[in-house]
Amino acid sequence: MAGLWNWSAAGLIEPERVRNALAGALEAPVVALPSGVPGALLCDVYHVGGDFPTLIDVFLAPGNVAEATIASAVAVRLGAALLLPDDSLDPSRYVLAEPNGSLGVVHVDEEETDDGVERRRARPCAAEGPRPGELPARNAPSCACV
What we know:
With about 150 residues, the protein is of the alpha+beta class. Helices cover about 15% and strands about 35% of the residues. It contains two helices and eight strands. A hairpin with a 5-residue loop joins strand 6 (about 95) and strand 7 (about 105-110). Helix 1 (about 15-25) crosses helix 2 (about 65-80).
């Protein structure tokens, strides 16, 4: 177990449904915070406004699988698009995992609120750059397609 994943899902999705989809994709137990289940991934799900109002935080995420691969599988199970951070330094750029399993790069508008970050207006990124899951080239220019 290694890291932290932060995703946003399109639509209001119940926390138990998110945890079940994640457990199915990882073939591992996923529980709500706090939990005393040894070896389980911890998953916090809460709601804000915007086009991607379900925020998903996965603690102790496995380091042996690609985050985009699991996000894609969860998007298919939920039937909802998921946003996850890409590896660029552009704060408005995300990987979009579609309900059909495809991955693409998009830009979104973000607004900080008391409840959390609201994300709106996802639009395709037209710039050449790394594919989802790839690291950007050294000294690569930032995306200018916003």
